[in-house]
């Protein structure tokens, strides 16, 4: 494991709040001032500790041992005792939210504010240890490193604020460590637009203060730290959310312009391109940003096999212990490769008797379907098959997830591999741009920019290894919107976009109230298969569920107002 991954946990107890909500402020032994921020080494380790909150929140099987995909129309979760089902049954509350992360991210924000406060005079602090002229070069290198880390602290603070905002709406913006009880009791929520302005302003200010890339620097030791392009990508995503219907009900076109411009700024860097290996993109492991031209920013390093143990088909040794099962709803979204048409369209070429043939190649790269070769044998998703419906912990939908799964592990030998969770990648930026520009100018006008919305979508569709046809010319804005929605759905499947996309688009009352569908597969006497779509699970979504509830404990403190309906 690289040095950056090793030391993100170092000195963590010295800089983090230990309580259960963001107003708890105790620091272990109060030695953050006396013993941590006194020299370069400890300062630097404290800075890397700010990243630790990413390790604990982003990744695999993190909500009731399920992927967040199982809380939207992407998937079901086989373990019916998982807390993820509270989302699906509509029984989550302000005291029982399966993904309540209010405290987590405010503790994360506190760690960044503490680092910024205690390193404000970092040049003077470092000079105490380097007082002779022969150490001038080392002093300059150390001050440069801490300056970078301070910019990273601001990036992380903005990023953690955004993670709150996309769930809760407007939240209190915290830019300093507050210890006074009376002041804490008066903290109120900033509105959504103010929060976005803060996030975007921070990204603009720190973009050039951050290192441009960590790839190739010091033998890639520090890959995984925030860069200038990562700040630009965060700005793109934040402005896209701000322009979307949930937060822009009057459809202010200027917001769409700003979102399009932010995404185009990333494209115009010319630093990133689409990977030619879509499947391998999610198996990059350690140092993901140095291994693919598509990855802008990723959480580095889980060296384990828990994801494979959960999601290998049940018939494989030690597999299927807690699987997230892709839905028929999602499978149906993958087009026919030859025609580029939805499977329900006239002339698509879809064959119900052979439903997976000739489909968008990303289907087979993301989802294990019946009779696919996997680890030396065909997957038996048919009823009565080794991996089929009806077995304990087997797929509930007729499908297993393939994205992120390392198929080369021998779980009987407890083999492991390093996993990375990509937070920003170039395909998302292209789709952000396409969505924003389509809403601003329509499908085939580019205005001041260098490509149309259609061209951006076509780039994703025609990437090497996928090779779908380009979209037909002459699409209306509404038709292009539908194609963009579907392109995001399949391109970004299982990456924690769909759950939030249907909310920001304000279509969750339709998509999340539709039943989750599965495929019941029968093996016939001649060895052929028959396929029948079935309802797997009813889902419940109410209009107030577009935003998370503020935790009741925070509301009871008096100054923070609850979201409507909760």
How is this structure best summarized?
The chain is mainly alpha-helical and 566 residues long. The protein has helices spanning 3-7, 12-15, 31-36, 40-49, 52-57, 85-89, 102-118, 122-127, 136-168, 181-185, 192-206, 228-243, 253-268, 288-291, 306-311, 328-331, 361-366, 426-441, 453-461, 477-491, 498-504, 508-511, 552-555, and strands at residues 75-77, 295-304, 324-326, 367-368, 373-374, 377-378, 400-401, 417-425, 516-523, 529-537.
Please provide a written account of the structure:
The chain is mainly alpha-helical and 566 residues long. The protein is 39% helix and 9% strand. The chain has 23 helices and 10 strands. The strands form 5 sheets. A two-stranded antiparallel sheet has the order 1-3. Strands 2-8 form a two-stranded antiparallel sheet. Helix 12 (228-243) packs antiparallel against helix 13, helix 13 runs antiparallel to helix 18 (426-441) and helix 18 (426-441) packs antiparallel against helix 19 (453-461). The protein starts with a helix and ends in an 11-residue tail after the last helix. Residues 5-32 have low confidence and may be disordered.
């Amino acid at each position: 494991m690289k040095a950056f991954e090793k030391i993100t946990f170092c000195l963590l107890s010295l800089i983090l709040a230990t309580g259960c909500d963001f107003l708890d402020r105790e620091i272990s032994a109060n030695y953050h001032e006396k013993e941590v921020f006194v020299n370069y080494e400890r300062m630097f380790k404290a800075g890397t500790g700010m990243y630790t909150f990413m390790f604990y929140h982003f990744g695999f099987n993190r909500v009731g041992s399920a992927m967040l995909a199982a809380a939207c129309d992407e998937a079901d979760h086989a373990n019916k005792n998982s807390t993820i089902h509270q989302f699906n049954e509509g029984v989550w509350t302000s005291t029982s939210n399966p993904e309540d992360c209010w405290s987590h991210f405010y503790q994360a924000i506190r760690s960044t504010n503490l680092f910024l406060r205690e390193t404000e005079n970092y040049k003077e602090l470092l000079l105490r240890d380097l007082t002779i002229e022969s150490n001038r070069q080392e002093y300059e290198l150390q001050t440069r490193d801490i300056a970078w880390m301070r910019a990273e602290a601001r990036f992380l603070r903005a990023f953690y604020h955004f993670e709150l905002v996309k769930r809760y709406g407007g939240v209190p913006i915290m830019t300093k460590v507050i210890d006074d009880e009376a002041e804490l009791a008066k903290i109120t929520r900033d509105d959504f637009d103010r929060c976005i302005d803060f996030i975007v302003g921070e990204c603009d200010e720190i973009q050039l203060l951050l290192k441009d890339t960590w790839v190739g620097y010091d033998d890639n030791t520090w890959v995984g730290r925030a860069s200038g392009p990562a700040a630009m990508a965060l700005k793109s995503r934040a402005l896209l959310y701000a322009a979307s219907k949930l937060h822009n009900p009057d459809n202010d076109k200027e917001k769409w312009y700003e979102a399009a411009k932010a995404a185009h700024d990333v494209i115009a860097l010319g630093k990133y391109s689409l990977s030619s290996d879509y499947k391998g993109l999610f198996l990059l492991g350690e140092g993901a940003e140095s291994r693919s031209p598509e990855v802008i920013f990723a959480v580095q390093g889980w060296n384990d096999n828990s994801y494979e143990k959960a999601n290998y088909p049940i018939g494989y040794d030690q597999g299927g212990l807690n699987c997230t099962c892709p839905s028929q709803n999602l499978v149906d979204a993958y087009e026919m490769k030859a025609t580029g048409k939805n499977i329900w369209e006239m002339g698509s070429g879809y064959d119900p008797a052979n439903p997976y043939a000739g489909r968008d190649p990303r289907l087979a790269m993301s989802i294990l379907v019946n009779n696919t070769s996997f680890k030396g044998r065909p997957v038996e998703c048919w009823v009565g098959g080794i991996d089929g419906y009806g077995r304990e912990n087997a797929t509930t939908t007729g499908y297993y997830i393939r994205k992120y799964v390392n198929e080369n592990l021998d779980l009987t030998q407890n083999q492991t591999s390093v996993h990375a969770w990509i937070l920003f990648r170039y395909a998302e930026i292209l789709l952000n741009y396409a969505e924003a520009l389509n809403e601003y100018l329509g499908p085939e006008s580019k205005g001041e920019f260098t490509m149309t919305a259609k061209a951006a979508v076509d780039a994703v569709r025609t990437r090497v290894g996928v090779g779908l046809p380009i979209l037909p010319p002459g699409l209306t804005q509404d038709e292009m919107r539908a194609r963009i929605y579907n392109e995001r759905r399949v391109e970004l499947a299982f990456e924690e976009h769909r759950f939030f996309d249907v909310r920001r688009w304000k279509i969750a009352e339709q998509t999340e109230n539709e039943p989750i569908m599965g495929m019941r597969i029968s093996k016939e006497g001649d060895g052929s298969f028959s396929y029948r779509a079935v309802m797997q699970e009813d889902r419940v979504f109410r209009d107030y569920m577009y935003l998370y509830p503020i935790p009741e404990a925070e509301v009871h403190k008096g100054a923070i107002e609850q979201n409507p309906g909760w």
